[in-house]
Amino acid sequence: MFLGLSIYAWITIATLATVIICFATTKMPIDLLFLGGVTILLATGAITEETAFSGFSSESVVAIGAEGIIVIGLAQSGAVLWIVQHLLGRPTRLVETLLKLTLPAAFLSTFTSNVTIVSMFIRIAKMWSKKIKIPLSKMILPLGYAATMGGGVTLIGTSSNLIIAGLYKERTGESLSIFSITPAGAFCLFIGITTIIFLRRFLPVLKSPEEEFESTGDYTVELVVPTDNDAVGKTIEEAQLNNVRGGRLIEIVRFDKEVISPVPADEFILGGDHLVYSGEVDEILLLRRSHGLVNANKHVFSVSEVDSSRKLRTATVKFHSDLSGKRICDTDFEEKNNMILVAVSRSGERLKVSPREIELQPGDTLLLECPPKSQDATSSDLSKSLDFFDSEDAVVYGKKSLLAGIILIAMVLLQTLNIIPLVTACMLAAMAMVVFRCCTPKSAQKSIEWDILMIVASSVVFGQALQQNGVSDIIAGAVHSVAGTNHIFMLFIICGMAMILSEFLTDNVTSAVLFPVVYETATLAGFNPLPFCMALMLSVTFTFVSPLSSVVNMTTFGAGGYKLKHFVKIGLPLDLIMWVSIVFIVTLIYPFH
Predict the structure, then answer these.
(1) Which of 146, 347, 536, 565 holds its CA 20 to 30 A away from the CA of 469?
(2) Exposed / middle / buried, residue 420 (Cβ in 10 Å: 0-12, 13-18, 19+)
(3) Backbone phi, then psi, for 411, in 5-degree steps?
(4) Using CA atoms, how far apart are residues 244 and 267, in angstroms rounded to an integer?
(5) pLDDT in tens, 60-119
(6) What's the pLDDT score for residue 398?
């Protein structure tokens, strides 16, 4: 024993700290980090085999997996699109624009994935930005914050709520209703959106990444090979026309309109070939003199259309993406996905260097030349690395939209009326989405984010390890000794801990790790643990300072071309206001005895 903790307790603390440090300082996927942490705990005897696998059979893991299928059913059936088109009009002023974006986004996020809602509303914000001349950066950050807050209004609005609800049921045997958190969550949502409107003058005015991609003629150069050129009859590699100074050959357009892309190194050059390069215009144009090429009459590319079989799309590099810290030229990304990197934008400014030579960073916006069905063919590896915002799929609403809505309502009613448990309701709704063809079996399978489920399951195991090895009791005792029997002060401490930790980890991880601490703190002081668990739900969700605090924040970070300082400027006062609001409303609504 050292400082009242066993060797297994210290192993648990050291392992968890190592995982957190590695997550913050390395590019290793967080699911692998947590799985490795669980493996260490099991190998050292800090947890039993039963504990190690208990997280993977947790109700919250099953419910989150089923929720992914429900979300894809609502999206593909057009149910969400129908709601969006009937809720939104055309705003004229900033305040009106913010209200028409944030309120519907928050409402829809209470029952479906806030990431899906944000991706859909970003496209709407882009259209409005051009029509009403309001910078996109003044819309996307409030949109992301509102969707995040909306997720905290119901148990199914965010996966962290499902985690806490599942752990609460395991401890008490009581199932929480979908609307258990709604009164407190709705109050905090109102305060949050009001605060955002009040702080609108501090929203940054930035050039969005897409603005740099409005006219691709500035960075795509088309040169023609004369029939008497020495390169005719040689391969691209032999003529040294592939990777050139300042850019790269991305396409050959033949005289018969045949388009060759990507261009293999052993492709032969023919007289009259149109060579399309991307990169630094000035550098590429030197090829005219050095290789005897001539100017083409027009550029091949435009933003709306590249060619009948290829198109340009924008995507953002995700945090902890496999591409982060790498140059495209050092990977097989283009060959593997049949895509060509045309340009890179960072913080709203296009980087005027050869795009394939740029070391990519999280939040970078990429302009990619893709095949027409790139999204349908998108592999799970690609979706883990990039967020595509310009969806190619034209969703229409009809009978399936109504059916998907009925399934969602039925799920909510069945659980609210205590007819069946929440996890059962989610599973039935997910099955109904597939059976009634609101989504295809293939899309349902793809919608399950196994890496997220791995993180949740591993986090639950860490939470149990902290409890079983006495770490939760020590922390609970420390909180109790500081706060005494003052439940308000105790709430302030717990909410502060949750919000700070959630800024650096995901809300899912924070929920699972802190739940045993919060529960033990409440029971040690003789209080009803329910209000403390409700406060934990809100605290891990209503965090806005760091892009790492939620997937939504990560999404908006890249889409808006923001920097960390922009999140801090708006998010810090919002965090402080939420901190006070959560303590106030939880104390007012939920019984402590």
Answers:
(1) 536
(2) middle
(3) -60, -45
(4) 16
(5) 778 778 877 887 787 777 666 666 666 666 677 888 888 888 888 898 888 877 777 787
(6) 64
Are the CB atoms for 92 and 51 separated by under 8 Å? no
Output Rg (C-alpha) for the chain, integer angstroms.
26
Three-state DSSP class for residue 73: helix
State what percent of residues in the chain have pLDDT above 70.
86
- Looking at residue 88, its pLDDT comes to 64
What's the pLDDT score for residue 85? 61
State the number of CA atoms in the 13 A half-sphere of 46 facing the CB.
30
Alpha-carbon distance values, 20 to 81, 324, 502 (Å): 38, 19, 11
| pLDDT tens digits along 122-136 | 777 877 777 777 888
Cα separation, 538 vs 532, in Å, equals 10
Say if residues 369 and 342 touch (Cβ distance below 8 Å).
Answer: yes
What count of other Cβ atoms lies within 10 Å of the Cβ of residue 235?
15
Contact by Cβ (8 Å): 251, 259: yes
Q: Which of 155, 77, 146 is nearest to 107 (CA)?
A: 146
Q: What's the length of the chain?
A: 593
Single out the residue of 156, 153, 74, 58 nearest to residue 116, CA to CA: 74
pLDDT in tens, 434-493: 888 888 888 787 777 777 788 888 888 888 888 888 888 888 888 878 877 788 999 999
247 CA to centre of own chain: 31
272 — phi, psi (to 5°)? 90, 0
- For residues 210 and 202, give the distance between their C-alpha atoms in angstroms, rounded to a whole number: 22
DSSP-derived 3-state class of residue 207: coil
Distance from C-alpha of 39 to C-alpha of 237, rounded to nearest angstrom: 48
